Amino acid sequence: MSYSVGQVAGFAGVTVRTLHHYDDIGLLAPSERSHAGHRRYSDADLDRLQQILFYRELGFPLDEVAALLDDPDADPRAHLRRQHELLTARIEKLRKMAAAVEQAMEARKMGIDLTPEERFEVFGDKDPEQYAEEAEQRWGGTEAYAESQRRAASYTKEDWKRMQAEVADWGERYDVLMASGEPPTGERAMDMAEEHRQHICSWFYECPYDIHQGLAEMYVADERFKAYYDSMRPGLAEHLREAIVANAARHGA
Questions:
Q1: In terms of CB atoms within 10 Å, which of 19, 77, 134, 195 comes out highest?
Q2: Which chain positions lie within coiled-coil regions (predicted)?
């Protein structure tokens, strides 16, 4: 079985130009050529491309990727183990960064005063003001944003902790729900989506079903939100998006 350069580009989510470049530099030379001279890739070529893309995603330059993959003493299983370790570390870092971004945006814009020690503990070396400004630019002119600001102005630090505890409890229960195999269109999943909407209504602003669906799309499209929800359980952002849509349809939206 062999595949054309266009098929491989589609499989891997890269451009044909990228595959041509990999061929030109000797990083990924297709195993076969058609009678017309067109590139044809084997399953072994696809395995190598997967390894290349793993390392590229982790930030390795092409010359280092080539050196790693062409090492005659390298064990393919060792490559996978190393990539798994690196990816796991990166996921954990992204999870922490996403949580810091969430807290930074909300803490700065909700009038919560943090001590320097608390600021360092929550935000590390990240500047939350960067994301607070972005939030205001994106939603500052909306009624929902204004309502959120009005409500949050009266919140104490204990209120904030209680809200976070509710989110953590919801996330744990959604994790269990997904582990049980509940589909996004299932009754329990839709109930969890409705609880998510009610949480927004209770703490921030009235969130009708059309706005809730818009938020659901953002949870998947914006990498920071996606990382935040997927830190609760891989795939949760996509599952929640579908559950929110199903819940809205259930209520006639």
A1: 19
A2: 77-104
pLDDT in tens, 70-103: 887 767 677 777 777 877 887 887 787 777 667 6
Name the residue among 158, 139, 157, 159 with its Cα closest to residue 149. 139
Beta bridge pairs of residue 32: 40
Return the minimum-mean-pLDDT range out of 60-69, 88-97, 174-183.
88-97
CA distances in angstroms from 241 to 96, 149, 195, listed in the order given: 22, 25, 13
Residue 27 near residue 52 (C-beta atoms within 8 A)? yes
Largest CA distance in the chain: 74
Rounded Cα–Cα distance for residues 119 and 187 (Å): 40
C-alpha 221/C-alpha 29 separation (Å) is: 34
Q: Could you tell me the CA-to-CA distances from 88 to 1, 163, 166, 237, 251 in Å, in that order? A: 33, 29, 27, 18, 39
In sequence order, the 6+-apart residues with CB closer than 8 A to the CB of 83 are 51, 54, 55, 58
- Rounded Cα–Cα distance for residues 103 and 128 (Å): 8
Q: Which residues contact 220 (CB under 8 A, 6 or more apart)?
A: 226, 237, 238, 241
246 C-beta neighbours (distance < 10 Å), count? 17
- Global pTM reads 0.48
Strands of the sheet containing 3-4, edge to edge, are 3-4, 39-41, 32-33
Q: Provide the residue count of the chain.
A: 253
The amino acid sitting at 21 is H
Name the DSSP class of 186.
S
Instruction: Identify the band that residue 232 occupies on the pLDDT scale cut at 50, 70 and 90.
Output: very high
